[in-house]
Write a structure and sequence with these properties.
This protein has helices at residues 2-14, 29-32, 180-189, 197-205, 278-287, 295-305, and strands at residues 21-22, 25-26, 36-37, 40-43, 46-52, 57-59, 65-67, 69-74, 84-89, 98-104, 107-110, 118-121, 129-132, 141-148, 153-162, 164-169, 193-194, 214-215, 220-225, 240-246, 255-261, 266-270, 291-292, 313-314, 320-324, 337-340, 350-355. It is α+β, with helices and mostly antiparallel strands and 357 residues long. It folds into four domains: 2-43, no CATH class; 48-162, Immunoglobulin-like (Sandwich), CATH 2.60.40; 166-260, Mannose-Binding Protein A, Chain A (Roll); 264-356, Mannose-Binding Protein A, Chain A. It binds 2-acetamido-2-deoxy-beta-D-glucopyranose. Residues 62-64, 133 line the site of 2-acetamido-2-deoxy-beta-D-glucopyranose. Disulfide bonds join 211-232, 310-331.
């Protein structure tokens, strides 16, 4: 069984000058003709196989995670072959994958914002799992584990999900004022990222109901409805995510759905008898060795730390809100949530401050 493989390796070596460049590695088109089916590659009766996790792996901001991946040959080879490993991340807003890490022998290199946070876990010869430390909001998504054998390469997909919270966001200047690029930026300014469809879907399953359409990372505009009603896609229509489809990223304007995960640090309420203006509120947090909280931070603290305060307070964007984990009379609706007073032009309130630590 092994003999034909060796012969083919020699043939491959003799035509190396004309090989196409593929995924950053030389790749032999001749070998590709030997048949690829069902996610496995065959050469000389030996198949390179990849195994990943079918279920998404879940973590949260600030956590560490291992994305499992292993490879093997079938039938088993007598001697190990030299391989390269490449991990990349699929991007929802682009057809091009982002490089995460490449490894060959004992050498490896990671890229972009993964630098210094990723390594391979190889507790056995066959394991090529990816460890990501100090996960941030941009890390959620699908990752490709690719093993390149010199002759062929095979890959599998692992999904990293983040536990988090989705919140609709409407900026100071009003409803439906954000194009796609501004929508992305608006979320980042609130210490969040623009949500994916999966994240919106999970929040809808948890009861999110919002009758204003918002951008998602894939460039579509959608909104989640749990209680069907006339102005929100129709009364006779089943609950679900209403979809306006893909919209023009520069010309069309909507709100946005933002996503945040666990909070690094704490959010707390600060008040004084006569209240604060927005400017006084910012100063009060600074005087307390903190800063005025962003909307995403208030949502994180509410969702992950059960922050519950029945007092309206300023946030950095000029909105006034309060978080309720345990609904009770005189504190808004019967469901837990972050209540909003919009963007008051005047008036004095307390303030929500954020302290990293
Ligand atoms: C993540 O891993 C690093 C390095 O091993 C460790 O210092 C850190 O405490 C870990 N973080 C968590 C949240 O477990």
């Amino acid at each position: 069984m092994l003999f034909p493989l060796v012969v083919m390796l020699l043939q491959a070596g003799s035509i190396r000058g004309s090989l196409p460049f593929y995924n950053g590695f030389y790749y032999d088109r001749v070998m590709n003709d030997h048949g690829e089916s069902n996610g496995e590659v065959q050469f000389s009766g030996v198949r390179l196989m990849i195994e990943t996790s079918n279920d998404a792996v879940f973590s949260h901001r600030g956590g560490n995670v291992t994305l499992p991946c292993r490879y093997y040959y079938s039938p088993q080879l007598a001697a190990p072959r030299k391989i390269r490993i490449k991990w990349s991340k699929l991007r929802e807003d682009s057809t091009k994958d982002a490089d995460v890490l490449v490894a060959s022998g004992s050498k490896h290199r990671s890229f972009g914002h993964f630098r210094g946070r990723t390594r391979l876990q190889r507790s056995s010869e066959e394991e090529v799992s990816l460890v990501i430390q100090d996960i941030d909001l941009h890390d959620a998504g699908k990752y490709r584990c690719e093993v390149i054998d010199g002759l062929e390469d095979e890959s599998g997909i692992v999904e990293l999900g983040l536990r988090g919270v989705v919140f609709p966001y409407q900026p100071h200047r009003g409803r439906y004022t954000l194009n796609f690029h501004e929508a992305k930026k608006a979320c980042e300014e609130q210490d969040a990222v623009i949500a994916s469809f999966d994240q919106l879907f999970d929040s809808w399953m948890e009861g999110l109901d919002w009758c204003n359409a918002g951008w998602l990372i894939d460039g579509t505009v959608q909104y989640p409805i749990t209680v069907p009603r006339e102005p929100c896609g129709g009364k006779g229509v089943a609950p679900g995510i209403r979809n306006y489809g893909e919209r023009h990223k520069n010309l069309n304007r909507f709100d946005v759905f933002c996503f945040s995960s666990a909070l690094k640090g704490t959010v707390y309420y600060l008040a004084r008898h006569q209240g604060f203006t927005l400017e006084e509120a910012k100063q009060a947090c600074q005087d307390d060795q903190a800063e005025i909280a962003k909307v995403g931070q208030l949502y994180s603290a509410w969702k992950f730390m059960g922050l519950d305060q029945c007092d309206a307070g300023w946030l950095a964007d000029g909105s006034v809100r309060y978080p309720i984990a345990f609904p009770r009379p005189n504190c808004g609706p019967l469901e837990p949530g972050v209540r909003s007073f919009g963007y008051p032009k005047s008036g004095k309130f307390g303030v929500y401050c954020y302290r990293m630590s």
